[in-house]
Each structure stands twice: as C-alpha cells, then as structure tokens.
From TrEMBL, chain A:
The keyword Cytoplasm does not apply. Keywords: Membrane, Transmembrane, Transmembrane helix. It comes from the Bacteria. Its main location: membrane. The chain crosses the membrane at residues 7-38, 44-63, 83-104, 198-214. It holds the Pfam family CbiQ. It comes from Fructilactobacillus lindneri DSM 20690 = JCM 11027. It is found in: Membrane. This is ABC transporter permease. It is a multi-pass membrane protein. One of its GO terms (cellular component) is plasma membrane. The lineage of its organism: Bacteria, Bacillati, Bacillota, Bacilli, Lactobacillales.
UniProtKB/TrEMBL annotation, chain B:
It comes from the Bacteria. Belongs to the ABC transporter superfamily. This is ABC transporter domain-containing protein. Residues 5-246, 257-469 form the ABC transporter domain. InterPro entries: AAA+_ATPase, ABC_transporter-like_ATP-bd, ABC_transporter-like_CS, ABC_transpr_CbiO/EcfA_su, ECF_ABC_transporter_ATP-bd, P-loop_NTPase. It holds the Pfam family ABC_tran. The lineage of its organism: Bacteria, Bacillati, Bacillota, Bacilli, Lactobacillales. CDD domains: ABC_cobalt_CbiO_domain1. It is found in: Cell membrane. Keywords: ATP-binding, Cell membrane, Membrane, Nucleotide-binding, Translocase, Transport.
Automatic annotation (TrEMBL), chain C:
The lineage of its organism: Bacteria, Bacillati, Bacillota, Bacilli, Lactobacillales. Keywords: Membrane, Transmembrane, Transmembrane helix. The chain crosses the membrane at residues 21-40, 60-80, 87-113, 133-153, 165-188. It comes from Fructilactobacillus lindneri DSM 20690 = JCM 11027. This is Uncharacterized protein. It holds the Pfam family ABC_cobalt.
Amino acid sequence: MNPALKLLLVFMIAFEISFLTNIWLNLFLIMAALIYLFWHRVHFKTIAIFSLIAFVPAVGIFLSQLYYGSHGLYMGAVLFTRLYAYVYLGLSFSLTTYIVNLAQALEQDFHVPAKFVYGVLAAINLVPRLKYEIQIIRANGNMRGEQLNPWKPTLYFKALLVALQWSGDLSQAMQSQGFVENRPRTFITKVVISKKDLIIFIGILIIVQILAFTI
Amino acid sequence: MMPNIGVKNFYFKFTSNPKPIFKDVNVTFPSNKLSLLTGPSGCGKSTILTLAAGLSATEDQKCEIKGKITIGATNVKNISDTERPKLISMMFQDPNQQFVMQKVEEEIIFALENLQTPSSEIQKRTDEALAFCEIEQLRNREIITLSGGEKQKVVLATLIAMNSDIILLDEPFASIDLTSKRDILNKLVQLKNQQQKTIVISDHDLSGYEGLVDNLFQVHEEQITALPLSQMNTLLNDSHSPQISFAIPRQTEPKIISLTNYVLKTPATTLLKATDFAFHNGCTLLTGASGIGKSSLFYSISKLKKYQGIITLADKNIQKIKNKKYYEQVVLVFQNAADQFLTVTMQEELILAQKNSLSDFWTNAKIKQALVDLNLDHKMDQVVYSLSGGQKKKLQILLMLIRDPQIMLLDEPFAGLDVASVKQVQNLIQTNFLNRGRSAIVISHQIYQFNGFFDYHVNFANQKLQYKEELR
Amino acid sequence: MGNYILLGEKNMKKWLESWHLKNIIMVTLIGVACGLVFWVMDPIYTALTAVLTPLGLAPFTNAILIGFWTMGGPLALMIIRIPGSGLLAEFFGAVVEMLLGGIWGAATLISGLIQGFGSELGFAFTGYKQYNWFGMTLSVITTTVVTFGWELIRHDYAGFSLGMITALFVVSLISVFLFSGVLTMAIAKLLERTHLIEK
Ligand SMILES: Nc1ncnc2c1ncn2[C@@H]1O[C@H](COP(=O)(O)OP(=O)(O)OP(=O)(O)O)[C@@H](O)[C@H]1O
Ligand SMILES: Nc1ncnc2c1ncn2[C@@H]1O[C@H](COP(=O)(O)OP(=O)(O)OP(=O)(O)O)[C@@H](O)[C@H]1O
Ligand SMILES: [Mg+2]
Ligand SMILES: [Mg+2]
C-alpha cells in the first residue's frame, strides 16, 4: 500500500478509537494488525518485546480505572485494549514501511514541500549520534563536577548547541548536493496512489465505522 | 575551458571577531589542477572554501567582506542556486554530517534528482559513479554501517555523479587512515586527468600527498600564498620533529591504567587488541596514524565506548566504579574544546571550575597568574564560544587543571596552538599537575616538547600498543 | 500559525517560504532532543511508575512528567520564532520517534500534534509578538488545558471523581509550568547569551 496513505489510515483509526469506548472494535483492530504483521513476516520476538514494554502502562491505566473510575472494570478493559490497539496499529506501520518510501510518497502524492520531507529525513540520521552526544555531555558534567540532571537547563543547552551546529553543517552539505529549496526535482521511482490502494483505504475505514457503531 | 577560482583583493572578517581572517588576498586556484591548501587549524581554510562554494551559511552569519571570489569570470555571488552545483561542489570534513538518505545508492540518486537529471539517466550516472570509486559492492549498504573511509568514498561518488567542474574538499581525510587517503587521492588524480576537473583540497596534515598534487597554497598571517612544490617537501620534513628519546617504563613502575584481554572494535573493523598492557605513572605520549583509533581508545577508558575485556584503574575494574567517583579520578580533555564548556562566559566557567575543584591547590592568585601566562586575562566577560580556537583550547585545559583529578587524558591538546602557546600550556601542566605526582596520557600529532615534558612514548599501530624509545 | 492560515493562501505560501532547511532540521532536532533527554532519565520514570502503578495512581506519573513531554514546543518557539515552530517541533519529533520504532506509534503522532498545538496557542494569543514571560505563561496555560483535555478523552479521566480530576489537573499545570515554562525559559536565555542563534 502507498506508505503515506497507510500512515494516514493508521492515524485516522487511532484518532477515532480515542473517542470510542468499544472493546470489540479494539480487539478487532488488535487482531487485524497482528495478522497484518505476521503476514509481513515480522518476527514474533519483535512483537513480543513491544507487547511487554507496553504492559506496565497498560496495567497502570487499567488499575487506575478499576480503583477510581465510575465504570471500573469495563472502562479499564476498554483502555487496556485501546492501548494495545495503538501499539499494534503503530507497529503495523513502522515495522513494515521503509522510511525513504514514505518520504517519496509524501513528496510525490501528498505534495509536502521537499524541504520538509528531506530536512526531517536528514535529521533522522543524526538521532543516534545525538543520543550518544547526550551521554558524552553528561559524562563531561561529571568530569567537571556538575551533575547534569534533566531538570536543570545545562544538559538541554549543550545538546541544542550541538544540534545547532549540526543542522548548519547538514543543510550546507545538502545545498552542495544541489538541493535547492522550492525547486522541483525529478524522480527515479514514481510513487503513485493506485486504485487498489484507494479501495483498501476506503474499505477499511467503512469496516471500522460499521464495527464502531453496530456492536 | 574549465573555470578556475580567483580570489581578488579579498578581505573577510566575522563581525564578532576582533581580527579579520583574510586581508588583501590575491590568488588563483588554476583549472584542471589538483591544489592543496594548508595552514594551521583555525586559519580560515574552511571559511574560504565554503565562500568559494557559495554556501549560504557563511553569508547569513554576520561578516564583512571586501573584494570578490570568482568562478571563471563570474562572481560567486551572482551564480544562481540552480547553476552552482554544475560548476562547483564540496565535500566536508566530517563524513557523518552530509547524508540525507539511508543507503549508498539512494544518496547519489538524491543528488541527481536535485539537479533535475532526467529519470532515464539517473541510474546510468549512479552506476558510473559507483564504478569509478570502485564501491559497487556498497551500493545497497546502509550508510551508518560504513567506515569513515568508505563514507568519504560515497560522498566522492556523489560529487562525481553530479559532475561539477570544480570539486572542493575540506579536510576530507581527518578521520580516515593513510591507505584510504592515498586511495581517494589517486581517484582524484584520475578524475582530474580523465575529466579535466579542478580540485582543491584543504588539509593541515601534509602526509600522503607526495607526487600527487600540482600546487601548494599556504594560509599564513591573513594571506594565501602559492608555494613552489619543492617547498612542500621541506614543509613535510619540518613537520617531522627532531629526534626525541623516551624512557621505557620498568615493570616496577606504578601502573595507572591497565588493559587486560582488551579488544576495541568499530562496527566495521577491529581497532585494537591488548592482552596485557599498562600505562604508567608520569606523562605518556600516544602517537599513531590518523583514524587508527586513538580517540576511540580514550573514549573507552572514559567509559564512553564499549569494549571487550577489562580496564583497571589502580587494580579496580573501572566498570565497578561509580561514574561520579570514576570521573573524579580520570578526566578526558576533549579534542573539540567547546564540548567541555558548561556555561556562557569565561568568568562563569572559571567560577564553576574553582567551585568544583577537588583540592585547594588553585587559589585565586594562582588562577590569575595562569590567565596572565596564557594571555587570557583580558577576556573574562567574553562568551566562550566566540573565543578563537587557540583561546578555547587554552581555557579548556586550564579548567581541567583547576578540577585537579589524578589522571588526565588529553586528546590533541596542542592542535591549533602556535609554538609559544604550546610552551605556555606545557609549562602550566608540568608545574601545576605533573610535578605534583599526577599522570597524563597525551595524544598528539605535533610533538613540540619542552624540557622533557613526556616521560614515555606509546605508539599505536597494527592494532597494537607498544612502548618506543624513539619518535620517528 | 493559526492567524496565518486565516489570512489565506498567500500568507500560507509566505509562511512556507519562511522555513529554511536549516530551521527545519533544527526544529526536528529540538523535538527529538527533548525526548532523548527524557530517555536519559529512564530510571526515574521506571521508579515513579513502579511506585504509583500498584496504587492505581498511574495517571499521576503522566501528570508529574507531562511538562517534560511538552518542552519541545515552547523551546522551539523561543529559539526559532517562526509561528508554527512549536507545532512542528512536537510533530516532527513525534514523527521521528515513530519512524525509529517508538512503541506508541500513531498515538505519538496525535499527542505530538495536540501538545504542539497547545504550546502554539499561547504565543498565538500574543500575535507571535511576545516571546517573553507573558507569552510563556499563556503558553503554559494553553498547553496544560489542551493536553489535559486530550488525556481526559484518551484515558477517560471523566469517570474519576471531581477531586481526582482537579488534583491531576493541578499537578499537570505545575509540571508544565516548571519544565515547559521555567526550565525552557532558562535554556532559551542561555542560548540567547551565546549569540549563536540568529533571529
Ligand atoms: N561563525 C563564526 N563566527 C565567528 N568566528 C568564526 C565563525 N566561524 C569560524 N570562526 C573563526 O574563524 C577562524 C577560521 O575558521 P575556519 O573554520 O575557516 O578555520 P580552518 O582553517 O578551517 O580550521 P580547522 O583546521 O580547525 O578546520 C577560526 O578562528 C574560527 O574560530
Ligand atoms: N561509531 C563508529 N562507527 C563506525 N566507525 C567508527 C565509529 N567510531 C569510530 N569509527 C572509526 O574508527 C576509526 C578510529 O577513529 P578514531 O577517532 O578513534 O581515530 P583517531 O586515531 O583518534 O584519529 P585522528 O588522529 O584522526 O583523531 C576511524 O576509522 C573511525 O572512522
Ligand atoms: Mg576547517
Ligand atoms: Mg582522534
């Protein structure tokens, strides 16, 4: 499916279930997303790990409803399943989509300006290094005898100075690769929204509506 | 006729700096030649190259410019964004900060799409560029898994696919080994000969260029001068310091840091293996080719990089020592000075350092004297990030000295300092640190040494650390 | 951003043009960096969850820490000062988190948009003219109201007693004020003093 359309679909469904209190719909979405993930040969282990990470917060909101909510058990179950629906919906996008294809689809089919698409894409490459840099900044704090905590400004200040430096360098590098803001580009791979994509998109939305308002 | 780069009556100053970087420069980088631009760190190599490449980041910073830089007959300023990449493109020092896409081939395609290359031609030009750099086997690799040298080859392939007349390379070899450097240089020579390109490389390290460059330019006292090639060899020899001899530590000498069954790797290669190696009390010089893994070794000793095996500090596994405690004993003085600062002005930095000092050694009077010695005393209210490279370096070292740990790891502390400043800094470290029974390990390319500053010398080569009596 | 859209297509175009590559990368990194700093303090988060969850007070974990999650927006606005930078920082930050495999997936995106919108609103009320304590205070209030409203729906706080809802709201407000307000302001001040950021 067209990656951008898939993202839109996931986004819309996730948004909608935030307002609904329908356990069956949540369970249906969980099942559907899991089937989709297995169909795409995502490893069971990967899914299991994500499921485990989500378990604590899921229990957290379940218990709070159970203890303090007005429809304790029922509402707790809705929120518990809703949370897992979010997780698997998200995974069925992020584990089956290649970032670059999403970028191409956003640029070509949704006409998002190229500077936003490739600016964000380029920033993604810096994220692992930024993470490492934050560790270094912290260690440097220790070496200089200052504990840098997240509730003090220094850690952010230093991280942002680094980010500032990098964003200048990176945009320069992109410019020297011939990237000019607001100038059209050619594409080697054409990404389209096919009829089939549209039918699936609308089809799924209709099924979700039917489930949402009949059961 | 391919265009050259002309610099005419050129004056350049960052408004925030007291002194201009260039004054009345007149120089031409000839077409269809491979030129090398050298000069100490901070002299303005990057500045002049980015200006020639017409990259806007230098323009939007506040600066004063007089005179002009021309590409062929045209002032760089008058070249449109669309035309520029066909004329001139640039490779940067840090190969990690120039990629947009995830995979090698995609990066080249991205550049060609930017140039509005017809889609039918893109694949062909990509293949040719990969073939030229002999990296077809990397085509589908994820860029983050490549070594520094491989990354630079990918950038080079991108520039080749773009087919600009002039290619600028700003310290492209800073993070790669000599073999890869020669490899890429040979490609550039081939490119110049076969496709009549004009190439300018900036580098402060002159090794590896023998027989490959046509012209040599030096930045010196706000000027750029063309030097006869014969002088290059003299310069090369100059950078070879006089013979110095070192002691070999005796086994009985107290050990400060030991490596046992230690292995250090990058995702791509093994950098170092040490079954049983120790650094001893005193001041140790650590040398080795660029990109061999010296900084990585320091990072692992500083618990900032994973390694296999055991590192011990005074017989204790460093992983068993709490970070806070550990960094009171061992301190890393970063290669990039600004990384070490935590506040905004010099005054604030000094107050913080004194507050957190581990001893009472650094009295106000001592600090004042050190500032005078380092020629920093009139800069108290200046924002540290706006100090010159050398001033940042001197301040950084002073701050770490005031902290007063047992062991300092210094990564290239003398880079970018002139000989007089090196002397001041070494004196300071000697009298206030080493002479008080503390230890240092120092990575350095430039080995100015005054009054037996170093006790030992360890060479890092072929994945091994070895004590050496001599320095070649 | 709001008033820009209201003023029609021409202004929208002008707004798009005011964004340059460097700012786009920067705004994304601001969004991401705040999340990453949070990742550094993971143990705190885990400890807090471990204590509050068995008591059924998990929503308070959220309320105590909400100010950290919403820092990106006001920080970007203070630094970049283009209407919409708050929204974009939070949104792009969320996009990156999702693409790099964060567990909350689509929910992250929605929260990003909501939080960004919340922090934007306060500065929008000043016509994007007051990047100071006044704008910031308004932003703290709008951020809390908007994000709390969203939590109310998403985690169905509506079923809780009035006392509990009030407590949650007050804790959220304090958290947003301290971290997205006071802390953010301090960071922006430090950055300003370095003169490294062009306005
Ligand atoms: N934006 C800026 N504002 C003020 N000063 C600057 C700025 N950028 C660079 N400088 C200063 O200008 C001088 C020249 O910098 P440049 O980066 O061109 O040197 P370089 O020769 O490339 O050095 P290196 O070998 O370290 O890369 C340095 O002293 C640097 O501190
Ligand atoms: N995270 C990483 N991933 C891949 N390669 C890495 C990583 N970190 C370092 N390297 C590579 O390891 C090698 C050693 O790097 P290091 O910076 O330690 O060298 P160095 O000896 O300090 O060089 P220089 O003298 O230029 O500072 C380089 O080739 C570098 O590209
Ligand atoms: Mg440079
Ligand atoms: Mg190094």
